[in-house]
Q: What sequence folds into this?
């Protein structure tokens, strides 16, 4: 059964945004070539907030992606780049990606906050605003 991974990151400063976006593009390309990747979507919201939803064959495939390549190189930098970060995972019966509202519901109910060096007031109070889908959304498919 497919393993679903949701992330939400907010880049704390425009100074970090170019490097973050460069690493994001590398991670997107990496995901498309990764074993077990079934598909995903990326959403950019206001205030430099980014959501991802990805589907994988299993948690081992997602973890192999997460810790290697461009994504593995970006992970340690998120401590400095982001002031809000959270993640949620679950297993479901279909490969259909959840809606952004379902991703938010699961993030609030089952997710966990990730460590950041300078947490925002929202991160400190464990507030995760609902995503606001926009024109800046990208669907990612395996190559």
A:
């Amino acid at each position: 059964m497919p393993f679903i991974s949701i992330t939400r990151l907010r880049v704390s400063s425009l100074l970090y945004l170019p490097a973050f976006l460069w690493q994001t593009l590398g991670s997107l390309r990496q995901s498309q070539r990764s074993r077990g990747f079934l598909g995903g979507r990326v959403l950019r919201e206001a205030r430099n907030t980014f959501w991802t939803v990805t589907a994988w064959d299993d948690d081992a495939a997602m973890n192999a992606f997460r810790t290697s390549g461009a994504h593995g190189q970006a992970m340690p930098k998120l401590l400095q780049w982001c002031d809000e970060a959270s993640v949620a995972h679950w297993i479901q019966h279909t490969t259909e990606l959840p809606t952004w509202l379902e991703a938010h519901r699961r993030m609030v109910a089952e997710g966990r906050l990730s460590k950041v060096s300078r947490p925002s007031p929202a991160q400190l109070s464990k507030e995760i605003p609902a995503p606001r889908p926009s024109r800046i959304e990208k669907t990612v498919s395996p190559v």
Summary: The first helix runs from residue 17 to 33. The chain has one domain: 3-140.
